[in-house]
Design brief:
By secondary structure, the protein is α/β, with parallel strands linked by helices. Helix content is 31%, strand content 23%. A 7-stranded mixed β-sheet has the order 3-2-1-4-5-7-6, sandwiched between helices.
Length: 205
């Protein structure tokens, strides 16, 4: 596991340093902004895994959310966020492999993370289980999943999938509140994103 984490850390560190991040739109995505804007509790404990440049974390922090935790296996994007937001609590910037992270959160925001790693079925199943284990009972997983055919052989990220596939992985651990075509995607992604709200089952992990 350590060797695998070391390889992944170097892979992602190099990609961020070289700006090989074609999925990065440079700001918080509109569907997640719309969701964030209706959150009333500014103390809700939030995790953003595989956050990269973490524009959603920046958006949350600038609007007074105090318990935003940003997780990435690479140091470069975390340091970039700290530079943009010098007052962001450094202890809430976590350089770690998602699959070994421990914690309990009220809300996890998903933005391109699921579609970034090797989409082998065992990895996607492990993602669903790990997400549930990191959420408090009745906690929520909210975010965006790419809706385009999975082409694992190309090695090109972001890897896609279908609504039915995603549901197959998540439904053992979550009740589906909403999972539908995103209505307010940015123009280049319109019709190509699913917006989901999943509520952790009481005995789902």
């Amino acid at each position: 596991m350590k060797l695998e984490s070391d390889k992944l850390e170097k892979f992602w560190e190099d990609r961020y340093r070289e700006a090989r991040t074609g999925w990065d739109i440079g700001y918080a995505s509109t569907p997640l902004v719309a969701y964030i804007d209706q959150l009333a509790n500014k103390e809700v404990k939030i995790l953003i895994p595989g956050a990269g440049n973490a524009y959603e974390a920046e958006y949350l922090f600038r609007r007074g959310f105090t318990s935003v935790h940003v997780l990435d296996i690479a140091a470069y994007p975390l340091n970039s966020l700290q530079t943009r937001l010098p007052d962001f609590p450094s202890k809430q910037l976590i350089q770690e492999n998602f699959f070994t992270h421990k914690g309990q959160y009220d809300l996890i925001l998903e933005q391109t993370f699921f579609c970034s790693f090797d989409p082998a079925p065992e990895n996607r199943a492990a993602y669903a289980h790990k997400m549930a284990s990191l959420l408090k009972p009745n906690g929520k997983l909210v975010g965006l999943w790419f809706k385009h055919p999975l082409d694992r052989l190309s090695g090109r990220r972001p890897f896609g999938g279908s609504r039915e596939e995603y549901v197959g992985y998540l439904q053992p651990y979550f009740d589906i509140v909403v999972f539908e075509d995103a209505r307010n995607s940015i123009p280049p992604r319109m019709g190509n994103e699913l917006f989901g709200i999943f509520k952790r089952k009481a005995r789902g992990a």
